[in-house]
């Protein structure tokens, strides 16, 4: 009975030591840290499941709402809140309180494959760089929740389940976004034609592979979104588009991105009274200043950390780019190291007015010497202090990660380099893509605590 073996081997950790962010306590695939939308202090990152509950015995939504995407919040909502004082709690998914084998645990293990696919979809969508409304749209796409003619016919809303452009072909989500003859020219125009036709990739694989693509993933999502919008306008409002009209519309969407689609509905977003939706975009430094953007990256799979960053002038031109492979260290240390390496380069290049933009609150606090967190980072914090005490002007700011995408790209690149810091070619095409992405002031939506 392989299932039973797995179930027995699996009841290893008790609730008192289960890390909320770092252990797979929701199911055996999902590590919540992978879905974090904001940086947490190390202390919070290492906190236990019980620490994210309230005295009233509920999950601490006030803190959680801003930290995780709605799909993950939904998973947490569906999980029992641990009871304080009820003793060592061994209850894990599928493992009964007394550790006995149960049908429920067998089911949980047997449905493992489904869980993995779901996990891949969430990660793919959550890591996709683009407006939240398109992320939610892509989630609907991957779960076949769009009202195509096939779905409408099923519900008796129409008698014709076919695509209006392709005779005798059912209008499914895959048809609209990938197979319809009306979209061929569009995918071709944006150089996606080959993968769109690739018979070896099923629909979900095709979606996720394209969304993951570092250089073209964002455009891919926007094209899908535009195809669906166009299809709705045709079906609901009787409008018609030429292929060229559609291509122009998509190109405009790339440029103004969310501005073009702002008025569309957002699905399933968590809304609370003290939050407000704002548009976040990258802003160049003032003339005469140089901007240092840096970022850290942590891969849980091999417990490795990396950092990267770049310097940009007031015109948005990149004058230096770097990435570091930091081996095994924490994400906070990686964020801090990224900033320190960037400051060294800025000093060596003779810049004396530097604006430092980081998306890690903890790193910003350490650099500004707020709180006592700097003591945990010993030499590195001292090094930062020494750099900042030199005769130059350095302003340190926290920015949202939505406008730090070029630095994020470089930090990820650090994992593939040798240990240490490397200065990189500022003309690397992939880097240029992310620089343009930022320089277009691509607005991104974000719910912000007010
Ligand atoms: Zn069609």
Structure report:
The protein has 450 residues and is of the alpha/beta class. The protein folds into three domains: 2-117, no CATH class; 128-261, no CATH class; 290-449, Nucleotidyltransferase, domain 5 (2-Layer Sandwich), CATH 3.30.420. The chain is 43% helix and 13% strand. The longest helix has 21 residues, at 217-237. It is globular and about 75 Å long. The termini are far apart. The model is unreliable at 1-14, 86-114 and 258-278 (pLDDT under 50). Zinc ion binds at residues 163, 165-166, 169, 175, 180-182.
- Could you list the spans in which at least 5 consecutive residues all have pLDDT below 50? 1-14, 86-114, 258-278
What hetero molecules are bound to the protein chains?
A: zinc ion
Q: What is the class of the largest domain in the CATH system?
A: Alpha Beta
User: Which CATH architecture of the largest domain?
Assistant: 2-Layer Sandwich
Structural class: alpha/beta
Strand order of the largest sheet: 6-5-2-3-4-7
Q: Could you tell me the radius of gyration in angstroms?
A: 24 Å
Task: Please give the number of β-strands.
Answer: 8
Main sheet: strands, sense, barrel: 6 strands, mixed
- Overall average residue pLDDT: 75
C-alpha termini separation: 54 Å
What is the percentage of strand-forming residues?
5-15%
Overall number of domains? 3
Number of helices: 20
Residues in helices, as a percent range: 40-55%
Protein traits:
450 residues, alpha/beta, Nucleotidyltransferase, domain 5, 3 domains, six-stranded mixed sheet, two-stranded antiparallel sheet, binds zinc ion
């Amino acid at each position: 009975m392989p299932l039973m073996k797995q179930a027995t081997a699996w009841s290893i950790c008790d609730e008192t030591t289960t890390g909320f962010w770092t252990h797979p306590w929701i199911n055996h695939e999902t590590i919540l840290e992978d879905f974090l939308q904001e940086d947490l202090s190390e202390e919070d990152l290492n906190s236990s499941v019980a620490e994210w509950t309230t005295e009233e015995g509920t999950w601490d939504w006030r803190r959680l709402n801003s930290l995780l995407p709605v799909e993950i919040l939904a998973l947490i909502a569906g999980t029992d809140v641990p009871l304080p004082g009820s003793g060592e709690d061994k209850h894990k998914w599928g493992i009964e309180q007394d550790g006995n084998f149960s049908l429920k645990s067998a089911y949980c293990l047997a449905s493992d494959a489904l869980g993995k696919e779901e996990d891949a979809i969430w990660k793919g969508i959550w890591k996709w760089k683009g407006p939240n409304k398109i992320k939610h749209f892509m989630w609907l796409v991957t779960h076949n929740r769009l009202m195509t003619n096939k779905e409408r016919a099923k519900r008796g809303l129409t008698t014709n389940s076919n695509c209006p452009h392709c005779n005798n072909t059912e209008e499914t989500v895959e048809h609209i976004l990938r197979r319809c003859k009306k979209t061929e020219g569009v995918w071709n125009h944006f150089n996606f034609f080959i993968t769109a036709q690739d018979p070896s990739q099923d629909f979900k694989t095709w979606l996720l592979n394209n969304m993951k693509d570092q250089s073209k993933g964002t455009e891919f999502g926007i094209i899908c979104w535009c195809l669906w919008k166009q299809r709705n306008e045709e079906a609901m409002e009787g409008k018609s588009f030429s292929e060229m009209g559609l291509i122009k519309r998509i190109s405009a969407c790339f440029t103004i991105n969310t501005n073009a689609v702002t008025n569309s509905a957002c699905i399933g977003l968590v809304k609370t009274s003290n939050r407000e939706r704002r548009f976040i975009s990258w802003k160049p430094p003032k003339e005469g200043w140089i901007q240092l953007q840096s970022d850290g990256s942590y891969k849980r799979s091999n417990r490795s950390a990396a950092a990267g960053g770049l310097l940009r002038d007031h015109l948005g031109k990149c004058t230096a780019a770097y990435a570091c492979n930091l081996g095994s260290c924490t994400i906070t240390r990686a964020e801090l190291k990224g900033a320190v390496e960037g400051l060294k380069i800025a000093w060596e290049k003779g810049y004396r007015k530097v604006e430092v933009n980081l998306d890690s609150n903890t790193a910003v606090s350490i650099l500004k010497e707020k709180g006592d967190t700097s003591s945990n980072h010993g030499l590195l914090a001292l090094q930062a202090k020494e750099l900042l005490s030199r005769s130059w002007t350095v302003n340190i700011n926290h920015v949202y990660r939505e406008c730090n995408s070029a630095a994020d790209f470089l930090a990820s690149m650090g994992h593939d380099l040798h240990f240490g810091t490397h200065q990189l070619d500022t003309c690397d095409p992939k880097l240029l893509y992310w620089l343009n992405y930022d320089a277009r002031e691509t607005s991104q939506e974000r719910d912000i605590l007010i």
